[in-house]
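Database export, one record per block. Field names are fixed; values are copied verbatim from the stored entry.
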Amino acid sequence: MTDAPYRKLTWPLFIELIRLPAKLGSFLPFAFGVAYAWYSFHQFNWLNTLIYFIGQMSIALFVTGFNNVQDFYKAKDDHYRQTQNILGREHLAPHRILALMRVFLAIAVGAGLILVWRTNLSLLLIGGAAIFVAIFYTYGPVPLSRIPSGEVLAGMVEGFGTVFIAVFVNIVPQPIMLAFAGNHFSLSGNVPVILTVFLVALPIVILDGTLMFADNICDLAQDQRNQRYTLPYYLGKKRALRIYPWLPASAYVLIVLAVGLRFLPWLVLLVLLMWPRVRKNIQRFEAVQDKEKTFNTAVANMLLTSGTETILLIMAIGLNLAWPGVF
């Protein structure tokens, strides 16, 4: 960094810092979970949903901004720090960005504690685990993003975790209950509900993890210079590219399975119409792995699939209200 004064964080820079367009990827699991709670359990708690929306979006903003700060501090490659990381490139004050991210984290924690009070104490454990991953994904001596578990953790937390909590805050009784009586506590769970939510959320889990997988494939050389040893590093680029197309394909198979088991309405099968476009995006990425040119194909595949699936689920709910029993 030079000795020149730090730049002010303008709205355009803030939007780039937190990658606002990519936040749709955080919104879709939330929207899907809320819609699924209504479709499967016929329950909707608008206040809990609003509180969770505020908390979920706040933690999504925190994660992206915090990751940028940590990548700036931990970068071993000075060229990356000064020309590619937004803090170095735009000469933004790391301590100010970090302070702003702490505000978003505080909002998310506050929203979470309100929801714990309004639902069940078990949410404290679930939300606590998610926030732990959010913080230590890039923080600490061995950040989770620098070991070959980043894709799995990103998919599970932002995919299954978000969908599950969206269902959790909308239905009564909650699928997991933690209760205290004197010196004893009991933790119970509705296994069929938990497994069902996991299955319907699994395509989103896979597509979210695929997004991170594509990101790490594109950044493989840069990550090695910065001593980030992600899953593509251990697999090797050729093997990673052989695995890559099977991930979106498996998400589609799981959607068909969920419909076949009647966990989702048959209308959701129309998402299969998106497959040709998804396949074309996969082929584009297989041909060239570039953050600027083809990484957006992975983002598009998630939005096409999860977005269409969510819209179709909401449409099925609307049709069911108009003509009860049609789904």
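Remark 1: The domain at 22-316 is CATH 1.10.600 (Farnesyl Diphosphate Synthase).
Remark 2: Residues 46-74 form the longest helix (29 residues).
End of record.
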